[in-house]
Specification:
Shape: globular
Keywords: Cell membrane, Membrane, Transmembrane, Transmembrane helix
Number of domains: 1
Protein name: LysE family translocator
Oligomer: single chain
Radius of gyration: 19 Å
Distance between the termini: 36 Å
Pfam family, one: LysE
Order of helices and strands: HHHHHHHH
Structural class: mainly alpha
InterPro entries: LeuE-type
Helix content: over 70%
Subcellular location: Cell membrane
Length: about 210
């Protein structure tokens, strides 16, 4: 891969990754609930989904998912329903089931919850990444722009994926670290319901927005 083209790709993807989305929100949720030491599995789920997408693009499947295709339409609907489900589940777990259990006074944001299995966290992150069909469309349009025809194709896709993985892990860990610092410094401003409530609202908003645009 041409070094100048790779640098341009890395800078472009870095800027994109800094923009918060469902994947970042999932990392922050897991950081707040389980601690930052356990979020690598969450990132691995996200990156595994992106790996499958890149492989699909490499073999030409990604080109079939144009914005006009029926497959894209149904992917958007499925993604919207899943994001709405995530938001509704948070509302139920925190505001309904939690109230029914009549737990004692609200806990702080940095309380560590019971840790689900790595498999469950991995699959949840994978599903969140897969729930946004715009990721497929974006990568299908974005990656080929940085392919040099004079270089072998497979190594170029491999280099781009490794670059994506390094950027995603670095940026997501940065977000997790900032959240930990914020909750330690401003712990008195947060209750156990504030961050989950914001997360639920964002998931519901993203799901409804995606569904309306389907």
């Amino acid at each position: 891969m041409d070094p100048a083209l790779w640098l341009l790709f890395a800078l472009a993807y870095l800027g994109i990754t800094f923009s918060p989305g469902p994947n970042v929100l999932m990392v922050l949720n897991h950081t707040a609930k389980y601690g930052y030491r356990h979020v690598f599995v969450t990132m691995a789920g996200n990156l595994s989904c992106q790996l499958l997408i890149i492989v699909a693009i490499g073999v030409g499947i990604g080109s079939l998912l144009t914005v006009e295709s029926a497959a894209y339409h149904w992917m958007k609907i499925a993604g919207a329903l899943y994001l709405i489900y995530l938001g509704a589940r948070i509302v139920y777990d925190v505001f309904i089931r939690g109230r029914l259990k009549a737990v004692k006074a609200p806990t702080q944001l940095n309380q560590v919850h019971a840790l689900p299995s790595a498999r469950k966290r991995f699959l949840e992150a994978f599903a969140v990444s897969a729930s946004n069909p715009k990721t497929v469309i974006f990568l299908s349009a974005f990656l080929p722009q940085f392919i040099s025809p004079e270089w072998p194709i497979v190594p170029q896709f491999a280099i781009m994926y490794l670059t994506i993985a390094i950027i995603v892990i670095s940026v997501h860990y940065m977000y997790a670290f900032l959240l930990i610092r914020a909750q330690r410094r401003f712990s008195g401003m947060f209750s156990s319901r504030l961050f989950p409530g914001l997360s639920a609202a964002i998931y519901l908003f993203l799901g409804v927005t995606l569904g309306v645009s389907a």
